[in-house]
TrEMBL record:
Pfam families: Usp (PF00582)
Protein name according to UniProt: UspA domain-containing protein
Domain UspA: 2-137
InterPro entries in alphabetical order: Rossmann-like_a/b/a_fold, UspA
CDD domains associated with the record: USP-like
Length: 139
């Protein structure tokens, strides 16, 4: 299996495309993973319960449901499986890859100054440094 870790950005399509190319080359399936922070998940849950105009089908059961919707949006045109998780992004991506014996992890990357990386951290950097699998970083 190939794990494509996506965020809410226009780079998600590129990440999924690269993951699908690897999956095709190695006859594997692609899992598109999006991770919401616990704070983001709580905000989504609060907004869903406070909103009386949402239909029940549109109301995610929890943050994982909302994260799965984001992952599903990135899989349009792909045969990939969307996966929504809640937690610290780098840790959850690595744990998911380990639990499912992933062959590769594909991540997106954005330009950041060295100071920005040191102060704010980087999911991509953390996955690159800590994953047991080979990691492909897509610009």
């Amino acid at each position: 299996m190939i794990v494509a870790a996506v965020g809410e950005s226009d780079r998600s399509e590129q990440v999924v495309a690269e993951a699908d190319a690897l999956a095709d080359a190695f006859d594997e399936e692609t899992h598109v993973v999006h991770v919401l922070s616990p704070m983001e998940a709580r905000k989504i849950e609060q907004n869903a319960t406070e909103s009386s105009t949402m239909e029940l089908d549109d109301d995610p059961d929890d943050g994982e449901g909302a994260a799965q919707k984001i992952a599903a949006a990135a899989t349009v045109g792909s045969g990939a499986t969307p996966v929504g998780l809640v937690g610290k992004a780098s840790e959850r991506i690595i744990a998911y890859a380990d639990e499912h014996d992933a062959r590769y992890v594909v991540v997106g990357k954005r330009k950041r100054s060295p100071t920005g990386k040191a102060v704010f951290g980087s999911v991509t950097q953390s996955v690159l440094l800590n994953a047991d699998q080979p990691v492909l970083s897509v610009m």
